[in-house]
From TrEMBL:
Molecular function GO labels: ubiquitin protein ligase activity; zinc ion binding
Species assigned in the record: Lepidopterella palustris CBS 459.81
Annotated protein name in UniProt: GID complex catalytic subunit 2
Keywords: Cytoplasm, Metal-binding, Zinc, Zinc-finger
Family: Belongs to the RMD5/GID2 family.
Length: 415
């Protein structure tokens, strides 16, 4: 990887188009000057043109020379690429599951761009995708993609109101900009306060986190817009803020509020006080910005990270294993037959674990939609098929405790 990095640095530093652009500009300047001379005095045309010939030829040669360097830079870069990824072919289209759902793919891309705040790119993309509707291609899983399922049509067209989403994300980015760049908490606090009830039902601490940071900001000498003002008056401003704003937090955050207000006693040496961690926390702004993004997206019914980004990252992690598997299957002439299930474990980072997996303690099989986990009244959980086998439709004893129950009393467990 180091060799690749070096090549990229080289391309950025030396083998870039800067010199060519300068030389092309010089040529343009020369031609423009000649045009001005001729238009000012048409009689000077023959001599001006004659004078131009050699310099123009030279300038073309120079531009060509400039490009040679770039070509050789690109060449050695592609060599380094080939060397690094020599035995790593791209996956074949055999397992393609995407070509039959191009409108869903377009929707995912547009959503991703909107979520990243790339509004103009997103609107151009949506415009072009609408102007040239994609043609679904048959894939092994969807051999006849023209019979679109109703849910897919709905998802691709009906629920996707890009203008509304754009407005919502524009609001999110405005608040985030104020928060991160301007250190101005006011818009975020106003947003959270308007949704106080919903946030509280979700068990979110966002509103308190924002107000706590506002308290800390005032304490350390900033005003409400995030500007640094007289620090010696900070503690008093923070105290008056706590008096007017912390009332609603008394029940849920009594201890934190006590600590914050108690810290005012240490205002001269807060760095050595037991409350240090509340006041000197480098990552506090990033933390509230992350909480805010998470809550904002949740209230829109979306996950905090772009699903396309997560899918692409998980795919990149899984790809080497899957390619290896494909090779093994080719050698052994076996086929991957289990639908909707990967034949190997793909280790993903913990933040990519979204669903718990249930493995039946009796059959050792993984739960599926057809064979879901069922909980018996005693609280033990086994798979539906195991339950059917053990009970045969009548009262039966739990395999893990003396509890007896009827299969109709068992309840499906959703993970
Ligand atoms: Zn039991």
């Amino acid at each position: 990887m180091e060799a690749l990095k070096l090549e990229v640095e080289q391309l950025e530093k030396r083998d870039n188009l800067q010199q060519s652009i300068e030389d092309v500009q010089k040529t343009i300047d020369m031609l423009v000057n000649a045009r001005n001379t001729i238009s000012a005095d048409p009689k000077a045309a023959p001599i001006t043109l004659a004078k131009l010939q050699t310099p123009v030829k030279h300038s073309f040669d120079r531009v060509n020379d400039d490009l040679k360097k770039i070509h050789s830079g690109l060449n050695s870069y592609s060599k380094a690429l080939n060397k690094k990824f020599k035995d790593k072919p791209l996956p074949t289209a055999e397992n393609d599951a995407l070509s039959s759902h191009p409108s869903l793919m377009n929707r995912a891309i547009a959503m991703h761009l909107l979520r990243e705040g790339q509004f103009s790119v997103a609107s151009t993309f949506i415009e072009e995708a609408n102007a040239h509707p994609p043609h679904p291609e048959p894939t092994p899983g969807t051999p006849n993609p023209y019979i679109q399922e109703a849910w897919e049509k709905d998802l691709a067209n009906g629920t996707f109101n890009s203008e509304k989403l754009q407005q919502q994300f524009a609001e999110m980015y405005h608040i985030l900009h104020e928060l991160k760049q301007q250190k101005n908490l006011a818009p975020a606090i106003a947003w959270a306060r308007e949704r106080s009830g919903v946030l509280e039902t979700r068990g979110s601490n966002l509103e308190f986190e924002l107000c706590r940071l506002q308290f800390v900001c005032l304490f350390t000498g900033r005003d409400f817009q995030g500007n640094m003002v007289n620090p010696s008056e900070g503690p008093l401003r923070a105290l008056s803020y706590a008096r007017s704003e912390f009332g609603p937090f008394q029940n849920r955050y009594a201890r934190e509020v006590q600590q914050l207000v108690g810290a005012i006693l240490y205002w001269q040496n807060i760095g050595e006080s037991p409350y240090r961690r509340h006041f000197i926390n480098e990552s506090a702004w990033d933390e509230v910005a992350n909480s805010f993004t998470r809550e904002f997206c949740s209230l829109l019914g979306l996950s905090a990270d772009s699903p396309l980004y997560i899918a692409a990252t998980a795919g990149a992690i899984a790809l080497p294993t899957l390619l290896k598997l494909q090779n093994i299957m080719k050698e052994k002439r076996t086929e991957w037959t289990t639908q909707n299930e990967l034949p190997v474990e793909i280790p993903l980072p913990p933040s990519y674990h979204f669903h718990s997996i249930f493995v039946c303690p009796v059959s050792k099989e993984q739960g599926t939609d057809q064979n879901p986990p069922m909980m018996m009244p005693c609280g033990h959980v086994i798979a539906q098929e195991s339950l059917d086998k053990l009970s045969k439709g009548a009262r039966f004893k739990c395999p893990y405790c003396p509890g007896e129950s009827h299969p109709r009393d068992a309840r499906k467990v959703f993970l």
